[in-house]
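Check this.
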Amino acid sequence: MVTTEHPRQLADSYDVTIVGGGPAGLAAAVGARDQGAERILLVDRDPTPGGILLQCIHSGFGLHTFGEDVTGPEYAHRALEQVVDHDVDVLTDAYVTDASSDLRLKLMSPSTGVATVDTSTVVLAPGARERTRGAIRIPGERPAGVMTAGLAQAMVNLHGRLPGRRAMILGSGDIGLIMARRLTLEGVEVAGVCELLPYPSGIGRNVVQCLEDFDIPLHLSTTVVDIHGRDRLEGVTIAPVDDDRRPVMSRSAHVPCDTLLLSVGLIPDAELAQRLQLRLDPVTGGPVVSSTMETSRPGVFAAGNGVHVNDLADWVSREAQVAGAAAGDLALGRHRPLEDVHVTPGHNVGYVVPHTLSTSRTQTVSFRVKEPIHGDTILRIGDVHRRKVRAVVPAEMITLKVGPKLLDGCAGDTLRVDAIPAGQEEA
């Protein structure tokens, strides 16, 4: 087990301060150190860095980052090893309670009390939080047994406790799919998974491995319309929805259960971003960022699920290394690349990250489609990049690399990112 020691005394100032110790924060710290930044502070609210990875005991992590298939805790262990080897100050059980425009951070922890540090640059890596029942406004009583899928995952994997004996899951996000399998393996009967949309919200391999392999029914275009029970959940009413996503109550059904898990999406944690008055993307809810992951406030960078929700921890780490390296460069007085190309979502594209590109460097563009296309699809960035793929779905993030050659002559342009069925491209 990798252990970290709290710094005996916080320095008055740092080159780079990283807020959040999940996969994004850990990778950002390594990226900053690799660029030569010497005074680096990583602040994490949990007792042990690693974030959500620590409760994800299933495999499927690390193929891109470490070249092998590992579990979430193993991924966190290896990432933390790199941070410790890079001699980064790690402050756990700690919170950044305030941040000023001149990058003075107020910290609070049992080991340091309330302290203030100045920092040349900041990397925000707070991750995302789950949408709760209140966010989706399910009517009914408020009995025990209704919880997010992530909370149930922590109960089972970290604390060895089952949330109930018969469960229904609302939402087919990846955490919900994984928990359907996990609960089944622990002897809990999973009555089914309801999804409001006409297609799954999680990636395809999780639908197959977590539902189909265990004969767990997936009810598409279906939602929970009522919750029954006073002290403990006794059941839920589910109903199909019409094309306008309104429940068809004449076809509703009662499902007896003592547990309802909610897997209805993640929201980037933007509290500190809002305190710093950063410009936010109205679609993702995270900060608007440049190709180096710098936000609208110079010296403040952001990465990972705090910017937009990624499919894989590997993509989070890759993005955060870019942010950490750029923060280290800026802290050392190196010139930042000119952001001279804007990118914007076009046909059937929900959002694009980053929001600007540089004609002087290679960068990765990430985006999600709004609706699935089951067939050959053209992915297009303006007139500079075109790629054909077999199919696209909203659950799976798409990444495209673009570099100086492709962007030659595009300075000052705004490029649309499109996803179009093959044969239907505009003339």
Summary: The chain has a mean pLDDT of 95.
